[in-house]
Amino acid sequence: MKKPTSLPGTPIPRTFSTPTATVRELAVAGAYVFTPRVHRDRRGVFVSPLQEEAFTAAVGRRPAVVQTNHTRSARGVLRGVHFTTAPPGQAKFVHCAHGRARDVVVDLRVGSPTFGRWDTVELDTESFRSVYLPEGVGHAFLALEDDTVMSYLVSTPYRAELEQALHPLDPVLGLPWPSGADFTLSDRDAAAPTLAEARTAGLLPRYEDCLGLVAAAHA
């Protein structure tokens, strides 16, 4: 499935600014890209990827961070599509701390108005953009440079038995990877099911369950 220019029955993606960041809603419902103000001088750079004011204005709740994760990847490494069984689910706030990556979010929530849709953002250390994915949304990225470092702030602890994956080259998803590229995948990702296989097996999260997790976070 391709990224839409518009989706019937869903809001047009919106962009707004706070004093310290610009926020844009992605084509996947509930996912956002944050572009912070970057302070540069002769010493180098100072930037704050996660800012509570901008995050809360977009998402409607304060960021909940219980764990941080860190990956370093060579050029051509393709990680994903990863998601966490919901409940408990896992929301992610992702930015690139070194190098450059093509970051992709995929709506895997059965019943969502944007189910099967994806959007992509290039993450690097020039713009310092960050991507927020709510519970039930899949995540993948392709490292575009050697020593690409990705940092994840996540809402639930890692539990191996809850971690799920879809094949990132599933032709039905049609994710925007460069054609003819030589990707490096983990054994787990290379053997992962397609979207259709995962849905048949009952592995995908339900939209109503994910909304319930969001409501509980607001309570």
TrEMBL record:
| PANTHER family, sorted | DTDP-6-DEOXY-D-GLUCOSE-3,5 EPIMERASE, THYMIDINE DIPHOSPHO-4-KETO-RHAMNOSE 3,5-EPIMERASE
Name-wise, this protein is dTDP-4-dehydrorhamnose 3,5-epimerase
Which regions form coiled coils? none
Domain of life, per UniProt, equals Bacteria
| Family note | Belongs to the dTDP-4-dehydrorhamnose 3,5-epimerase family.
Write one Pfam family the protein is assigned to: dTDP_sugar_isom
Entry-linked InterPro entries: RmlC-like, RmlC-like_jellyroll, RmlC_Cupin_sf
Tell me the keywords, alphabetical order: Isomerase
Gene3D superfamilies according to UniProt:
Jelly Rolls
